[in-house]
């Protein structure tokens, strides 16, 4: 009854721990059966006294829970495996044609228990069915009770009998992507939408550079990325939420159409000092800056369109640019026949409302030789050279432009000027510099210097010479 309960608990344990996966591996190194006999002493082939042929040898492995007393036909709780017929009475691993022939694999999908018992039976295949239930065909049995943890090295076991032996190795390894003492830790490296990591020797996930989180699914953004306004799909990026922009997602996006404004939060349009309106496109000081109203109109601030002109009587339009053509607005006998043309004035008057009288040349006094010329609005004076103004009464002062250079004094004349130049300068505008040493040659390495009092040059002679041009040699008399 206790055995039934124990087996039941083991089965339950296996069911609960199905997320483990590994393999118990066993490799046969050698089998020796010198007389070709079974464990009961009888020949595999022939009579008890005379063996007529070699045994047809194969091996089975049974993996079960740790036990001291192994029954004749054990129940392989952890799994079992067997080979095909490997050969006769002497079998060496190097003589086998296929390495897989001598290797037994017992797969498990439960948490490896560490403590186990391994029963290895070398048998004779008497019926060509590789039967493992006939104890009479047993050649030699090897039993190992051990504690090992995956991944393990190869352990070697040698079992001796009467003129018989078997030697084999075994180990426990976890399947790919399984780790831990029981192969119960699953970790498969990946780099996709489900995770970005590799696995260490214990199956612990190690995030790839730029990722963190339990499954390394969270991208690490730039340190300067404002995480209140942005995020990142890929490492070291900064993708902005709607309404934010900039490398660090720290700049709000203004309301579309906002011209002279800024924002603290997305879609705002907070106007700069001199602007107003929904889009901050209305200049508060427009009237003062541009004085847009014509014909004495009064400019008034307008929060909808920068300004509104309040026009005087007789004018209309955005800037009071248009004349209202009504007879009552026409002066000095003017009249209006078409509303969009304006006042039609008598010959002697002009202006939008005929408010200005035309002068004739008889009434115009052109001075300083100016000539009167009739125009559409009256007369004008064509002035002679050197004069300007409405009546040519003002003489043009040519010295206003300061034409004389290098300290020259300008004297105005009619239609011209004269420059009185300082010493050393000449030309109409005193812009030509004269060199007082020009044309002066000093001999014997003499040097010409300009006089500070008069505009002239003189020679400064080297030692031993004199004269106006240093042309005279001074004779020296030495007495001893």
- Tell me the span between the first and last alpha carbons: 155 Å
Largest sheet: 5 strands, antiparallel
Quickly give the structural class.
Answer: mainly beta
Classify the beta-strand content into a percent band. Answer: 35-45%
Rounded to an integer in angstroms, the radius of gyration calculated over CA atoms is 61 Å
Helical segment tally? 2
Level-2 CATH architecture of the largest domain: Sandwich
Protein name: Delta-like protein
GO molecular function, one term: Notch binding
Membrane topology: Single-pass type I membrane protein
Subcellular location: Membrane
Q: How does this structure look, described?
A:
Disulfide bonds join 174-183, 187-199, 207-216, 311-320, 345-354, 383-392, 421-430, 442-459, 461-470. This protein has 480 residues and is mainly beta. The protein folds into six domains: 2-179, Immunoglobulin-like, CATH 2.60.40.3510; 187-219, Laminin; 290-322, Laminin (Ribbon); 325-358, Laminin, CATH 2.10.25; 399-433, Laminin; 435-480, Laminin (Ribbon), CATH 2.10.25. It has two helices and 44 strands. Strands 1, 6, 7, 10 and 11 form a five-stranded antiparallel beta sheet that branches. The radius of gyration is 61 Å and the shape is elongated. The N and C termini lie far apart (155 Å). The model is unreliable at 1-18 (pLDDT under 50).
């Amino acid at each position: 009854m206790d055995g039934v309960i124990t087996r039941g608990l083991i089965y339950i344990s296996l069911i609960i721990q199905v997320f483990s996966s590994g393999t118990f591996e066993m490799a046969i190194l050698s089998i020796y059966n010198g007389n070709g006999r079974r464990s009961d002493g009888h020949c595999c082939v022939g009579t008890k006294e005379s063996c007529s042929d070699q045994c047809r040898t194969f091996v089975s492995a049974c993996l079960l829970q740790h036990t001291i007393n192994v029954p004749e036909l054990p129940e392989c709780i952890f799994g079992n495996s067997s080979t095909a017929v490997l050969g006769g009475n002497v079998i060496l691993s190097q003589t086998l044609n296929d390495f897989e022939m001598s290797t037994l694999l017992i797969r498990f999908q439960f948490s490896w228990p560490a403590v186990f018992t391994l029963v290895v039976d070398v048998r004779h295949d008497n019926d060509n069915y590789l039967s493992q239930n006939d104890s009479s065909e047993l050649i030699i049995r090897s039993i190992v009770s051990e504690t090992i943890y995956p991944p393990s090295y190869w352990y070697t076991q040698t079992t001796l009998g009467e003129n018989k032996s078997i030697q084999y190795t075994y180990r426990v390894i976890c399947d790919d992507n399984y780790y831990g003492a029981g192969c119960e830790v699953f970790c498969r490296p990946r780099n996709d939408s489900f995770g970005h990591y590799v696995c260490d020797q214990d199956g612990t996930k190690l995030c790839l550079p730029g990722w963190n989180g339990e499954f390394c699914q969270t991208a690490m953004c730039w340190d300067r990325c404002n995480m209140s306004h942005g995020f990142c799909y890929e490492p070291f990026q900064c993708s902005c939420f709607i309404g934010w922009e900039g490398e660090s997602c720290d700049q709000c996006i203004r309301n579309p159409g906002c011209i002279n404004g800024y924002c603290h939060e997305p879609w705002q349009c907070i106007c700069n000092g001199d602007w107003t309106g929904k889009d901050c496109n209305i200049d508060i000081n427009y009237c003062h800056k541009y004085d847009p109203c014509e014909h004495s109109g009064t400019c008034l601030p307008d929060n909808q369109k920068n300004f509104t002109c309040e026009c005087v009587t007789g004018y209309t339009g955005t800037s009071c640019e248009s004349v209202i053509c009504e007879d009552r607005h026409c002066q000095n006998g003017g009249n209006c026949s078409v509303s969009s043309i304006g006042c039609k004035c008598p010959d002697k008057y002009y202006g939008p409302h005929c408010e200005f009288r035309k002068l004739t040349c008889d009434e115009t006094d052109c001075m300083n030789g100016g000539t009167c010329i009739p125009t559409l609005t009256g007369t004008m004076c064509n002035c002679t050279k050197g004069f300007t103004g409405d009546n040519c009464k003002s003489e043009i002062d040519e010295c206003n432009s300061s034409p004389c250079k290098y300290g020259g004094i300008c004297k105005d004349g009619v239609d011209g000027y004269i420059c009185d130049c300082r010493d050393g300068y000449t030309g109409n505008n005193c812009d030509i510099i004269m060199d007082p040493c020009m044309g002066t040659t000093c001999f014997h390495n003499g040097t010409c210097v300009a006089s500070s009092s008069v505009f002239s040059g003189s020679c400064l002679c080297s030692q031993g010479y004199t004269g106006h041009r240093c042309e005279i040699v001074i004779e020296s008399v030495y007495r001893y």
